[in-house]
């Protein structure tokens, strides 16, 4: 099982209707793989262009710099996970059922999208200032969605949590770290891991399940 | 609050009795900071030597390469956390008390030693093959200690866990990821975070606390 292509991780982006040329996707995919393998600083625009089967000059038609590629990857990755978290949090059912779905999907995303996940979570320091501000706001929104759902469960008497922010941090942290350790050799499928993590998190939040 | 110097993170190493020259510590410290900031691949031996206030030639007296520095940092960091996990797991008291101590100390270590923690956990792919084998064995030992303590608690009827390996992975993952997100601006001290994570993990394992 290999890591999921980025086009499947942020379905709002793929070309066609938004007229994004296929070459831009190849560059994003090549940048994700290069950054994940060598780190942002050790990757050159030439590395990325070569991996995408283009010349460096062709790369600059689409992106001004490797930082512009990182910014797009990071923003799109964070926007995709925020959308997933929002949809689960605002979905049908009681807080327990929504939290379960949130953790299942957040975990599965980070197992499937581990290559993107590594770039998105471990290269934040390399983002240009304006892109960092956008990403930091998206991260804060993710934490707030999780906190709000925990608080809703506490108010409803189905969660029992003393420090909501710490618990919310633990919930997102567990999911994010999956992108570090999950590999092709992992014996659990992304969905199995998601279901098991859903159980573990609900217990952590004091839900009687 | 700044990150703890490496000499405090693996107390078995500091010079004197083992005759390790002070210059070697300065190089290790400089390497940790450089790798954490720019990543291994983008760091040169000259960067490290300069940060340690030495010439590149002086660096080679102590270390053959930047990979040799990474190998020592990674092995020592993993050995230190394994020692901490072993001591807590083999300590006094019931499985619940020992697991609480294990999580508290593992979490506190990763908050305090976050700079080392980042290098140790996110630059594994850059290790030379022999060093990687050593580190992989240490990581497996950490997971096994945690799994064995969970199993002991299950047998004693104080933990309720269906997938011991997944639960053990979640326990170590929560602690390791602290080195990614914990910063100087975090409002919880490393010890407070440790105590709160201790509570959350015990609940996750089905302990009635």
TrEMBL record, chains A, B:
Q: Which InterPro entries match?
A: Homeodomain-like_sf, HTH-type_TetR-like_transc_reg, HTH_TetR, KstR2_TetR_C, Tet_transcr_reg_TetR-rel_C_sf
Return one GO MF term.
DNA-binding transcription factor activity
Write down the PROSITE patterns for this protein, in alphabetical order.
HTH_TETR_2
Domain HTH tetR-type, residue spans: 21-81
Q: Which SUPFAM superfamilies match?
A: Homeodomain-like, Tetracyclin repressor-like, C-terminal domain
Domain of life of the organism encoding this protein: Bacteria
Q: Keyword set for this entry?
A: DNA-binding
State the DNA-binding region(s).
Answer: 44-63
Question: PANTHER family, alphabetically?
Answer: HTH-TYPE TRANSCRIPTIONAL REGULATOR RUTR, HTH-TYPE TRANSCRIPTIONAL REPRESSOR BDCR
> Any idea what this protein is called?
TetR/AcrR family transcriptional regulator
Q: Which organism is it from?
A: Streptomyces kaniharaensis
